[in-house]
Amino acid sequence: MNIPVIMPPGVAFQNGHFTAENIINKTTHSGDLVGVFHDEAAWLALPANTPIYQVEMLQSAQGEGELFVGTTHLNPGRVGDEFYMTRGHFHQRREQGEVYIGLRGTGLLLLQDEQGKARLEQVSTGSVHIIPGATAHRLINTGSEVLSTLAVWPTIAGHDYAALAQGFALRVVLQDDKIQAKEVQNG
What we know:
GO terms for molecular function: glucose-6-phosphate isomerase activity; metal ion binding. This protein is mainly beta.
């Protein structure tokens, strides 16, 4: 019997880019991140077409039991005193979790439950982050090079950005030459 051997997609761990055909690419620019950064004047001063992060995803079957695999490449930089970050989201299907693996760069993963309790995890090459269901998540690049992570999540999870219209409970800033987490006072 002659069984065919298929070459699956690959990821270059040094830079997080996929080696496959039909990659889905999406770039998020500063102008797409309305209300994300605390310092609105500094955000408005940044050209709207400034790339903040890029997501690459493998084509995937969709439905119950299927998975997406993607990489996020978050550029270094700041808006005011706040580091570049992803928009961040809950999953529409709150019970769905996600896994992040640090590929390159340094940064933080901001995690927040539905009650607003937040925590930070250090992201670096080889770090593994298990994001439980009902947990919002956002990447923050605190380093001087691109922060890349590999992510795996259920195709049925969806994204809920509206639940975070008031933002996350923490901001990560550079103050007095130190990376600091600041509680956000809403209201």
